[in-house]
User: Fold this.
Amino acid sequence: MMNKDKMGRWEFVLLAVILAEFVIFGLANPKFLMPRILLGSVNDIISICIISLFVTLVMITGGIDIQVGSIVGLTSITLGVLWQSFGINIWISSLLAVVLAALCGALSGFIVAYIKVQAMIVTLGGGFLYSGLALAISNISGSASYKGISGFPASFLSFSKFRLFGFIPSQLIVFIILTILLYIVLEKTKYGRKIFLVGVNENTARFCGINTRLVIMSTYILAAISAAIAGIILTSYIGTSKSDIGSTFTLPIITSVVLGGTLSTGGKGSVIGTALASVVIGLMRFGLPLCFKVNNQYLDIPLGLLLLIIIVARSLFKGQFNFRKLKFFSTKAN
Assistant:
């Protein structure tokens, strides 16, 4: 498990970065600091924030999940088709879409955990599979895939329009609740400790009596369910069900998890760190176009650079630490 002092220090660094973003973007364009505009931007990034929390679990076990973006689109188009073409109640359609997403996560998790295929390969293939499945389902509706399905009931659309105290979006409330719940699960329960132990050393965890394969599989199921929740929220917000609405989510999600302090090799991670990192990235994606006129098409460039910098910096730090440790023991031996 990640040293709590180090993790806490990193979370303070992320808080400092968030503060710096407010200062820089606020000075560049005072509109950035307007609560109505700032909180309104939550709708565009909250899906990435929610999914990042649960992908953290996957990466703590030493895996990776790059299929969740496809599952967002699959969930969206599934609930739309079930509602429009089959006349199923919108909320029941949403529940069935979540079940489908969980099955997708279970399939990929089973292949990773029980058949021992590399997670990167499995979820890459899963991404293509679920994107194709979403496109096939969209053809059932008779609507062009680029148009999607619209005209949802007011009760469904009103969820994303709700504002606590008149200005706090319901999506932000969901994100905060999920962050607290997942923090408790990861830090205060046996299941959370099992996730960390599997990430540190799967063989040792197995010898301790932990069903490591089931633990690993469960993290992919939870990540898929979070993608389904994000897909439902996003569909409610834009008022349209489309098969490709999560296609650009992969890079921001992985960057959020890694920036939050989770090691790509597993065994270390923090839900709070991921939550803060997703806010950092969300503010960046909102502030750059608003304050510096950066085209939305180029927002992946700073995210990609940020991800590379984090990975390289960690590798250099780890190499330097190992060198110093080797030098210390060599001196002791002599």
About this structure: The domain at 4-328 is CATH 1.10.3470 (ABC transporter involved in vitamin B12 uptake, BtuC).
